[in-house]
Automatic annotation (TrEMBL), chain A:
Coiled coil (UniProt feature): none
Domain 2Fe-2S ferredoxin-type: 6-55
A molecular-function term among this protein's GO annotations: 2 iron, 2 sulfur cluster binding
Pfam family for this entry, one: Fer2_2
Keyword tags: 2Fe-2S, Iron, Iron-sulfur, Metal-binding
Matching SUPFAM superfamilies: 2Fe-2S ferredoxin-like (SSF54292), CO dehydrogenase ISP C-domain like (SSF47741)
Record domain [2Fe-2S]-binding: where: 75-152
InterPro entries, alphabetized: 2Fe-2S-bd, 2Fe-2S-bd_dom_sf, 2Fe-2S_ferredoxin-like_sf, 2Fe-2S_ferredoxin-type, Beta-grasp_dom_sf, Diverse_Oxidoreductases
Highest taxon above the source species: Bacteria
UniProt protein name: Isoquinoline 1-oxidoreductase subunit alpha
Keyword Secreted part of the UniProt annotation: no
From TrEMBL, chain B:
Organism name: Planosporangium flavigriseum
Lineage of origin: Bacteria, Bacillati, Actinomycetota, Actinomycetes, Micromonosporales
Coiled-coil region(s): none
PANTHER family named in the record: ALDEHYDE DEHYDROGENASE (PTHR47495), BLL3820 PROTEIN (PTHR47495:SF1)
Name of this chain's protein: Isoquinoline 1-oxidoreductase subunit beta
Region listing for Disordered, in residue ranges: 751-770
Molecular function, one GO term: oxidoreductase activity
């Protein structure tokens, strides 16, 4: 069986898997990293949102063979280390606003929010309601109001 | 040690009974009998007026059904100073575990972080008192849990008093530490063993008055929030059970279809990662190293399918059957002084974000199940029967759920996992795919509500509502509760079970003269269930739209009209607050409007004021990728009277979620049934509210407490918010909507193929990074 090597949450990992297996299953079923959630495996619900080289992506829709040895994958578990703290400012904002209800979508929401704030800044502005309206992550509990407030607060401390 | 002395208490304060249970450390148990500890609930009398729901609602019924139960629930004090409690309910996001922790912390004078709440396994001895539903958890647990905690605290104080040789009245307890004369202290942990009882002993305790509360009634963050934001919270699919490999099911192209033959089982079994392929009742199960390889196997399977249970049904055929089944009105129309209206509510999906899943390990002589189950006792009994095992040989663990909305009242997935594990002879971690959840999962059934109102001389003479619905499945245990307590019901007569539920949950809050609200069901074999309550969102939406029509016919403002006709003083108070705080009646641009909706249920009262923008530039606003925009609710204000608000922050969260559900139900989300199956297969087909549909301004006002006991909260906001959004839409467009959601007539997506039943995932994810 082919082997695949990449950096996962700051550590190099090598895993055996068929080339076409989507990265989400490699993370969850083979490596036991369960922060990225399975909500649809159709690149629609965004519950598995993680980062590749600092950008948001959905591992349900990437074949493991498309991940290069130099790629750095960050899941919710590895987000705090990217800022060298116990919690990323966006995670802290999520706590401050008591955003979560069931919590299933929230790892993906937080990872998407961090990338969206950075994307806005790269474009030369702070995150706006219009930017937040572009987020596609489903929250079936309907926590959107607190998500919106937390993103703005988290952006301030990022 | 001696039995604790009875503390002096004011005569007027009620005392509550519990038991010291023989255990290595202090354990206090109470009977799970809400009614016994809450005699304010009147169910003995059977009045003819007002309507049943006002005196005796669904939650009361559940409480009453629980009364004969002898099973005990217990608070355990540990040597590390923590208190633990295994709650016989499911946590699916509603915040129940946080509220329970608050009750224990309050009555024990223990910090929140020292309270540990877990979910109890199925406990058959609790009979039907292990059901999470009907927004009943807080109402049924409030007194028992506090009683157990209060007894534990009292026992710890008495133990310290005995050890120190001083009267208990000279001790105080705070933050898990008991302080005595001279400043000497002892932690709860240091007393946990000494306070343990050698035998089970009845004890009574007095609960704190609400004026002394420092935890209950104060905003509290969720106890699992840290685990959630760090990705550590374990849901069913995150559990690692030895050898329980990923398992999925290829499903037939119609609801409840069957397997005639698998034509290439050996070839599929030889695919990479695949270990097993077996036919089951409603599909072909495949087990493999990863879920992705199970989906590959589903692509490759060649199966000949047998018919399902509703193959001939589509939206139009179901609608025709509902129309034919409507119970006639009894009051004839009064010429021009009559409003007749008919509203259709499409099928909707109660699927949470977490796909249905369950782990099963079935052996020849025993079985173990892990699943999110709101009625684990029924699951245990029925899975045992299905497997041919004694009930006690089936262990059922309740796991944290990623949402429920009614779905987890049923144990379909756990039963299927058990069937697969038994047939394969191996443990399985079964997940339904997203398309399975929409197409074969439970739905909230289509219904048609007809309303006729007669009015004259400034009065409303009669209000009749006839609700016809595809049968809602109550086969999850609530039925057993009702059957067991039918003799106590104030509704009685020859009503069916569903009609009984309808009468217990529906109640017009207006002085509208002769008022009747009746349900009729059409028994079609869809997989149905409740969805963040049962009938109220549809019934109340129809009612409030007609109330607005009545107001217009009488030349009155909608809020003023409601003030004049409301019978319910708590509803009047929330209405007035919403009108004032929401600036009702302000000038708004053409194409935008306010709407108001009211509803009282679960002993709570809610008013929602919504503002909607139906102008073309908003309706047609662009969105990248698939999705629908449509009218936008720009502002929503929820005013809630929850009796006693245990956790205002959690209550606010439930109100916010209720509004987002309502927006979806009125504007965007539904299932289109065609030839025996829903066309929807993904979240880009089933348009639940997204950020771009959500109001930028959503505010919740919690009224001052009107009671010492909490109302239900989980489902409370949906119905009034549905009504408010619908009424706002009607006023903004000048046309009363009669079919919901309003976009149901247009299919706004390209349906996924019916076969294979689960599509393989895309591969272009790296083209969409940001």
């Amino acid at each position: 069986m082919p082997t695949h090597t990449f950096t996962l949450n700051g550590e190099q990992v090598t895993v055996e898997a068929e080339d076409n297996v989507r990265l989400l299953w490699v993370l969850r079923d083979l490596l036991g990293v369960t922060g990225p959630k399975y909500g649809c495996a159709l690149d629609v619900c965004k519950a598995c949102t993680s980062h590749i080289n600092g950008k948001a992506f959905n591992p349900c829709s990437v074949q493991v063979s498309d991940i290069k040895p130099t790629d750095e994958i960050t899941t919710i578990e590895g987000l705090p280390a990217t800022v060298g703290k116990d919690l990323h400012p966006m995670q802290q904002a999520w706590l401050d606003y008591d955003v979560a209800q069931c919590g299933y979508c929230q790892p993906g929401q937080i990872m998407a929010a961090v990338a969206k704030v950075k994307q806005a800044r790269a474009a030369g502005h702070e995150i706006s309601d219009a930017d937040i309206d572009e987020l596609r992550n489903i929250c079936r509990c309907g926590t959107y109001t607190r998500i919106r407030d937390a993103i703005k607060a988290g952006a301030h401390t990022m | 040690m001696p039995d604790p002395s009875t503390p002096k208490a004011p005569v007027s304060r009620r005392r509550f009974l519990g038991y010291l249970v023989a255990a290595p450390t202090l354990a206090v148990a109470v009977s799970w009998v809400a009614e016994a500890s809450d005699p304010q609930r009147a169910y003995a009398s059977v009045p003819t007026l007002p309507q049943p729901e006002e005196l005796f609602d669904l939650g009361d019924l559940q409480n009453l059904a629980a009364a004969p139960t002898s099973g005990l629930i217990s608070v355990q004090v540990n040597t590390d100073g923590t208190a633990s409690f295994a709650v016989p309910r499911a946590e699916v996001g509603q915040g129940m575990t946080t509220a329970i922790a608050m009750m224990v912390a309050e009555e024990m004078d223990l910090p929140m972080e020292k309270v540990s709440i877990s979910l109890a396994d199925a406990r058959p001895e609790l009979l039907m008192n292990q059901l999470t539903g009907g927004s009943n958890s807080m109402r049924s647990m409030y007194m028992p849990v506090r009683t157990a905690a209060a007894i534990a605290r009292q026992r710890l104080v008495d133990t310290a008093a005995t050890q120190w040789g001083v009267p208990a009245s000279e001790l105080s307890a705070r933050n898990g530490v008991i302080t005595g004369p001279g400043g000497r202290t002892a932690t709860y942990g240091s007393l946990a063993k000494a306070a343990a009882s050698q035998q089970t002993t009845p004890v009574s305790a007095t609960l704190k008055p609400s004026s002394a509360f420092t935890v209950l009634g104060k905003p509290q963050n969720r106890i699992d929030a840290y685990d959630i934001v760090t990705g550590r919270k374990k849901f069913g699919m995150d559990l690692q059970i030895p050898n329980a490999k990923p398992t999925m099911v290829a499903r037939p192209p119609t609801i409840n279809g069957t397997v005639v033959s698998i034509n290439n089982a050996n070839a599929v079994r030889a695919m990479p990662g695949i270990t097993d392929v077996v036919a089951i009742t409603h599909g072909v199960a495949v087990r493999g190293a990863t879920f992705g390889q199970c989906i590959d196997a589903i692509q490759a399977l060649d199966v000949t399918w047998g018919p399902g249970t509703v193959d001939g049904e589509s939206d139009d055929t179901v609608k025709a059957k509902l129309r034919a089944a409507q119970v006639p009105m009894t009051v004839p129309p009064l010429l021009s002084k009559t409003i007749d209206a008919e509203f259709t509510f499409a099928f909707a999906s109660n699927s949470p974000l977490e796909p249905d899943n369950a782990i099963a390990d079935v052996r020849p002589d025993r079985a173990e199940i892990w699943a999110t189950l709101k009625v684990p006792i029924v699951a245990q009994e029925q899975i045992a029967a299905q497997l041919g095992l004694p009930v006690e040989a089936v262990k059922v663990h309740v796991v944290q759920g990623g949402g429920s909305f009614g779905r987890h009242l049923f144990h379909d997935v756990a039963a299927e996992a058990a069937e697969i594990s038994q047939k394969m002879g191996k443990p399985v971690k079964l997940s339904w795919s997203r398309t399975d959840n929409f197409r074969q999962g439970r739905t909230h059934p289509m219904s048609i509500s007809r309303v006729r109102v007669n009015y004259a001389l400034g009065n409303v003479i009669s209000y009749e509502q006839r609700h016809a619905s595809v049968q809602t499945d109550f086969g999850h245990g609530l039925g057993e509760m009702i059957t067991a307590t039918a003799a106590h019901l104030p509704v009685g007569g020859n009503l069916s079970f569903a009609q009984t539920i309808f009468e217990l949950t529906q109640s017009s809050p207006y002085n509208f003269g002769v008022t009747t609200q009746l349900l009729n069901e059409v028994p079609l074999k869809f997989n149905t269930g409740s969805m963040r309550n049962i009938y109220s969102p549809n019934v109340v939406c129809a009612q409030e739209l007609v109330v607005d029509q009545l107001a217009a016919k009488m030349g009155k403002d909608p809020v003023r009209f409601r003030r004049e006709f409301l019978r319910d003083q708590r509803l009047l108070a929330v209405l007035n607050k919403a009108a004032e705080a929401g600036n009702w009646g302000k000038t708004m641009p053409a194409g935008t409007a306010q709407g108001i909706g009211l509803h009282s249920e679960y002993r709570g009262a809610v008013a929602v004021l919504a503002e909607i923008d139906c102008r073309p530039k908003t309706v047609n606003r662009p969105i990248r990728g698939e999705g629908v925009t449509g009218p936008r609710v720009t502002k929503a204000l929820v005013v809630v009277d929850a009796g006693f608000a245990i956790n205002p922050r959690g209550l606010e969260a439930q109100m916010i979620g209720g509004v987002q559900d309502a927006i979806a139900l009125v504007l965007t989300s539904s299932l289109h049934i065609k030839d025996g199956i829903p066309l929807e297969g993904s979240w880009d087909n089933y348009f639940y509210t997204r950020q771009w549909n959500s109001p930028l301004d959503l505010r919740v006002i919690i009224m001052p407490n009107t009671s010492d006991t909490p109302s239900g909260a989980g489902e409370l906001a949906v119905a009034p918010a549905v009504a408010a959004v619908a009424c706002a839409y009607a006023r903004a467009t000048g046309t009363m909507p009669t079919s919901f959601p309003i976009n149901h007539g247009t299919l706004s997506f390209e349906p996924l193929p019916l076969e294979p039943s689960t599509p393989q995932s895309p591969t272009d994810g790296l083209d969409h990074t940001f």
